[in-house]
């Protein structure tokens, strides 16, 4: 897949923006704070329905505006698709595909993107929510319908927590809260599907992560991925000092997980009523990452941590590449080379240069290995200039709309 053209309206620091991209490497150069990462963030949103920098959509809407628009012309071989999303400060977002209204969770079917960013270090060193976020965004790209499952689970979880808080305020104890059973059924059904999908993804990533780690680090430190599941009795959110996975690496059935989930809810009901909080489920699980049989968090060196983070992204790209009939995902390397030593810079560049399209952002052009230098665009205070390919934004967008309509 290739992003041929990107258009923005009231997105971050851009009132309007038009960016033409090419196959192969594309380099976006500009000082920090000029808007490079905003362009990358817009493309990533189309693929993951989320940002790698913020947990809600409102910060992506330009100050003083009610909504932002991201529009991109995508090329899948000979086929071109125009995808668009309107991010609203309030209310649900809206999407269009080739000019026709669509559900937002349909966008990842067309946009396949893998982002490398400085924030990736938090995947291995941050709290469990960072790893859950990484996994869930990859799940959405791999199986777009899971976007709705994850959203429904969050909705049910909020409603169940509200009921628990209300019960605590009224002093209700034990089995007296019969209405909780209805929410338990919904939580178990949705949560079990999420847990099984996460386990399957971790199993499928195991070999690609090991291969990518060895290529980046130049050593075989036997990286491993295991889930610590709260439905088995682990509590990764509260036992931060004990990062042991609680279960086997094998993927269990939804029925097995559902049975454990329901038993865990019953066992924790008294504590949940005391605290007004749901204490078990995929929202409290953690992906445990290991190298040399030790947890990366707390034991790995800075270089090893970066190698694991990069390996997770490369493995994600390889997994999407192997499963997608649309070809390679677009790789976006956002200010990542400034964080790496010379050896890792060159290894990462060599490993990614062969993808159909690579977008690299950097404050210092010299940080980017030569193999990724091809098409250079400069960003200055939200102004996009391309000396190699003179641009005519309005014409480019007109062409984009016409070609998408012809599809």
Automatic annotation (TrEMBL):
Nucleotide-binding recorded as keyword: yes
Family (UniProt): Belongs to the RecF family.
Subcellular location: Cytoplasm
InterPro entries: DNA-binding_RecF, DNA-binding_RecF_CS, P-loop_NTPase, RecF/RecN/SMC_N, RecF_2
Function per UniProt: The RecF protein is involved in DNA metabolism; it is required for DNA replication and normal SOS inducibility. RecF binds preferentially to single-stranded, linear DNA. It also seems to bind ATP.
Organism: Microbacterium saperdae
One Gene Ontology biological process: double-strand break repair
Record GO terms (molecular function): ATP binding; single-stranded DNA binding
Annotated keywords: ATP-binding, Cytoplasm, DNA damage, DNA repair, DNA replication, DNA-binding, Nucleotide-binding, SOS response
UniProt protein name: DNA replication and repair protein RecF
GO cellular component term of the entry, any: cytoplasm
Top-level taxon of the source organism: Bacteria
Main location: cytoplasm
Bias type Acidic residues, positions: 398-407
Residue span of region Disordered: 384-407
Domain RecF/RecN/SMC N-terminal: 3-366
Gene3D superfamilies registered for this protein in UniProt: P-loop containing nucleotide triphosphate hydrolases, RecF/RecN/SMC, N-terminal domain
UniProt cross-references to PANTHER family, sorted A to Z: DNA REPLICATION AND REPAIR PROTEIN RECF
UniProt KW DNA damage keyword: yes
Database matches in Pfam families: SMC_N (PF02463)
Amino-acid positions noted as binding ATP in the UniProt annotation, renumbered to this chain: 30-37
């Amino acid at each position: 897949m290739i992003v041929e053209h990107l258009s923005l309206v009231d997105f971050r620091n851009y009132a309007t923006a038009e960016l033409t991209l090419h196959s192969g490497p594309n380099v976006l150069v500009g000082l920090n704070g000029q808007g490079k990462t905003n362009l990358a963030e817009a493309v990533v949103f189309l693929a993951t329905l989320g940002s790698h920098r913020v947990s809600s959509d409102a910060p992506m809407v330009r100050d003083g505006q009610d909504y932002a628009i991201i529009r991109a012309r995508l090329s899948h071989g000979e086929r071109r698709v125009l995808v668009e999303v309107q991010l609203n400060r309030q209310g649900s977002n809206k999407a269009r595909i080739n000019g026709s209204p669509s559900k937002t969770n349909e966008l990842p079917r067309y946009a396949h993107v893998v982002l490398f960013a400085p924030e990736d270090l938090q995947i291995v060193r941050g709290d469990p929510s960072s790893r859950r976020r990484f996994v869930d965004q990859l799940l959405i790209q791999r199986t777009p319908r899971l976007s709705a499952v994850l959203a429904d689970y969050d909705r049910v979880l909020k409603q169940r927590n509200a009921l628990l808080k209300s019960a605590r305020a009224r002093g209700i104890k034990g089995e007296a809260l019969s209405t909780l059973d209805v929410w338990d059924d919904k939580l178990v059904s949705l949560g079990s599907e999420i847990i099984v999908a996460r386990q399957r993804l971790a199993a499928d990533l195991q070999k690609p992560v090991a291969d990518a780690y060895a290529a980046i680090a130049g050593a075989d430190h036997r990286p491993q991925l295991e889930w610590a599941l709260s439905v088995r009795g682990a509590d990764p959110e509260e036992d931060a000092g004990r990062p042991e996975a609680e279960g086997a690496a094998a993927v269990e059935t939804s029925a097995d997980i559902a049975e454990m989930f329901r038993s865990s809810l019953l066992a924790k009901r008294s504590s949940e009523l005391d605290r007004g909080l749901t204490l078990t489920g995929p929202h409290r699980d953690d992906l445990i990452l290991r190298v040399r049989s030790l947890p990366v968090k707390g034991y790995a060196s800075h270089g090893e941590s970066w190698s694991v983070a990069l390996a997770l992204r490369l493995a994600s790209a390889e997994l999407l590449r192997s499963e997608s009939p649309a070809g390679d995902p677009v790789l976006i390397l956002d200010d990542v080379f400034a964080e790496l030593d010379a050896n890792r810079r060159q290894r990462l560049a060599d490993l990614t240069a062969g993808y159909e399209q690579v977008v690299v952002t950097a404050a210092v052009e010299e940080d980017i290995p030569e193999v990724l230098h091809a098409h250079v665009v400069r960003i200055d205070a939200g102004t996009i200039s391309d000396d190699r390919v003179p641009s005519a934004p309005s014409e480019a967008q007109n062409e984009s709309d016409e070609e998408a309509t012809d599809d």
